[in-house]
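Sample 1 of the test manifest.
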Amino acid sequence: MSQTPDPLKGYRGRARETLTRFGVRVWSDVHLENDTGSRFSGVILPRSETFDDLHIVIKMKNGYNVGIHVDRVNGIAEVGYKEAVYKIPEKEFPRQDSLPNVTLLGTGGTIASRLDYRTGAVIPAFTPGELYGAVPELADICNLQTKKLFGVFSENMSVEQYVVLARAIGDEIAAGVDGIVVGHGTDTMGHTAAILSFMVQSSPVPIVIVGSQRSSDRPSSDAALNLIHAVRSAAYCDIAEVQICMFGPTSDRYGLLHRGTRCRKMHSSYRSTFRTIGDIPLAIVGREKFTYLTAEYNRRDRTRQVVIDPVYDDRTTILYYYPGMRPDVVDAIVEKGYRGIVIAGTGLGHVNKPLYPAIKRAVDRGVHVVMTVQTLWGYVQMYVYDTGRDLMNLGIVPLENMIPETALMKLSWVLGHTDDRGEVRRMMLEPVAHEITQREPHNGYLIMQGGLPEIDEWIATHWK
Amino acid sequence: MSSTIDYAEVGLICGLEVHQQLLTERKMFCRCPAGRYTRTHDGEVLRHMRPTLSELGEYDGTALMEFKTKKNIIYLLHKENVCTYEMDDTPPFLVNQQAVDVALEQSLMLNCDIVDEVHIARKQYLDGSIPTGFQRTAIVGVNGRLPFRGRELSIVQVSVEEDSCREVSDRGHLVVWRTDRLGMPLIETVTGPDLFTPEEAAEAILLIGRVCRSTGHVRVGMGASRQDVNVSVRGGRRVEIKGVPKAGWAVRLVHGEAVRQVNLIGLRDELRGRGFTTADSIAVTSADVTGVFAASELTRLRPDEWERFVKTDSRRSGFELGAGEYCVRAVRLRGLAGTLNWPTQPDLTFAHELAGRIRVIAGLDQAPILYHSEKWPDYRGALQELRKIRSVLQCKPEDGVVVVWGPNEDTQTAVNEIRLRYLDAIDGVPNETRQPFPDGTTDFERILPGPDRMYPDTDSPPTAITRERVQGLKVALAPRPWDREARYAAAGVPARVSHYLIRRGGASLVDRLVAQAGADLKLAGFLIGERLKGLRRAGVPVHQITMERWLELFAALKERPVLGEAWDWIVRPMAESPLLTVREIVDRKLHGPEPADWRAAIPTAVEAVRSRLGGEDRPKLVRASVRGLVRALRGRVPMKDVVAAVTAAVGGHP
């Protein structure tokens, strides 16, 4: 940090004036007296820049914070200075030759985090030492090393990060690690899992993406257990694919390994938010063992040569169709130079007739248009109705049961390779990592309906 | 070392933390209904807790201790009263402003200075009582004072916070919590350490209760108010007796804690006298002696008995039970003979202190939790077995011995806890939270948490409290209890009755009856404060009577005071038949106003009774005659007039 930190961090306007007037700063240990003679003893905390400029925040001796209005401040006397050092106790991560080697690649997110006084929010931070200090169980699983690639919230992950991440994974595999864990914010974890499934192919070892739904600054956080599950999967699991490892139920019970191309965040805050769509998960990660739910996966094989193919064209978008959508939306996308459009259509993959001319114009201009379903579950089946056949005649490629976000990632990746219509079509329809499956098992679609007696009975007798 | 002590001499100091649930429609950080309790559940969640760092970058001692206990925590859920917020699967919604208003009002009642910007903090609790692992809490008022025994009781702070879960069971490593109460708003009022006897502590609890209840905006009933009593003596340390349900309990609890601290200070001096001054000086070793007790007459320690216990108490490995095979572990306490029987609380010894720590932290909770050499049970072979384990441990006569049993790993945790508790003993009185029991004793609950467990709530923005908002609440503030008590006393209402009225919310009703129906304060106080109790106890829903109907009744009473003699006859139908007016009730139940000719009918009535009873027992005759007339005349004619008329009709000498 080359910049001198602001001694009045976050204070603006009148609050800043008041602090300056009394010659105190952030982290000053003070006695503040107000206009009714109440005395507040404690440390002046930094203030979030988004808050008003009328209050001074003090952390009192008993640990509580209070804000005092500047109009009511009679006097502030500094009696000391106590800057907070928020640090997870860092201990050297112990190494045992008998244990597998795992690399944790950090992208940000809440798998490990600390408080940011500027915004009052949680910011990511980790080193192996910190992780060992916070989750000592990791040392019994593997020799862990960490590499922080970037520190961004998952909504800020983008093409640039995908490429860096894919290359970093290639480097780790080349260096001979036994497994890779990617720490990631949960919001766009599904997108990253999908793109990595295309950019990193035929990996010899597991690539496990993990995050947390409750940040690790909370005692009830799922971060530690998720991390333990992910690191164990990377070290020992037999599935050498890109996977997401997150809570199965909301209880602290087991994690699930989801295939990177078929997984979606389905709740804004539940721990058990990730669900495999249109199929079943790959495995259950229990405390002592893995329970494989399928035999269809690439096995761990150190002799297999990984293919790193980190290309991406971000002139692509998802068009989420709704009744009455006006065709000029499509025209606008084309005019702005987009090369690929994933339509999330209704039902089996439909849009309304007024859109047809616009779609035709787009296709004629060389834009690649593909169809997925906004129902998430089920296949695009454009032969069933005339509308579907009409759309195909326009040049739309139906993507079977590829989920829309995966389709967007794949289309971006494909367009990084080619612009040829036939080739794009071929690549989009040829599954790389089960993004299209031939069969949907009957238990691949389960959204149990609460309120039904048999469902409620089951829920009442199982840990959710 | 006695149980009677001079509180002033030992320097007893108490302070209170009084928790009072607020009467709001909804919970504090979600939209669930508040105050809806359930006995069943329709969902369960299993969780664990891990300590996190405080804002200033330190781990809280309690948090670390609770992590060591490795508790499995189950939450029982019911759709009626919890949503995904209570499960910690949804972040908090914006704080319930109704709760903030009631909390501000309470702070004003307590003469506090209102803070200008309320910041929500997280207070860590790793015992599982809150699924997030922390309680959301915020200071709303500081620096208050109440008149108390001719001096002042200082109020350090008032905070508004979410209530915790209710414990269902705590067995070994598994604790089960019910979530219905979780998230209900409450205020915590913290007094200064201004109380100097057990009786003062109890009295201050009642005083704060009356202040809180003066507004009518707090909940009443079982569990709606609970207090923590902080106690220390000179040379001791602050110990928090947690969750005292009734003021009356405080007397014995505070006394017991004072005695305990005095005795622990005595033990400290004894230990130091024996040369125990450093951590290294406490030498605790242990050995697996399961074999010694394989066929013992002390059946509790036998492996077959343990198997039976595990089975009948359905203790599951990995849930209630810790890791490892069954183990009886004997612990040698070097040079510590005589300390296990050292008195602590009245009728308890230092071994009880060890047992508390072992129960909570090692999760070994099968009674009596431990056996020890200074109170070894009496059975055939007892001496031989004790001698055997002393020899296994290579004990010397000056050593003490403790025996614990259970899953191997837990017994090892227990050994370490025994060592740690002795380390604390060298230092005197450890800062602890203790759980109270009805018999006046307390047991270890956890190490007293410090400020390190506080953490700002990053999910909730601060709330600025405007001067206008405070002014608005001030204008509408209920009378302070001491003002009311003085006014009631001047009107002749006994203190007992005015306390009851303030506590149960009747005082605001009485005040309105006086102000709006012109009721006599003493009479209204008597009727609402005393006469209503019987009906309430009989299950009559008197709380359903609206203010309008009370005003109607007291207007009628003012006109015809004799109606007061038929109180139960009128009030019961008022509560049970909300569609009838007071006038209709009076007409139906009392057969109208005073009959003009009632006196004329008395002699006939008396004669009828006389002929039925026979004899000349005049007082009996008077009583029986009056009894016969009550049904027809109650509420219509003053009873004293009926008695006089009957007495005259009976004739002869009184």
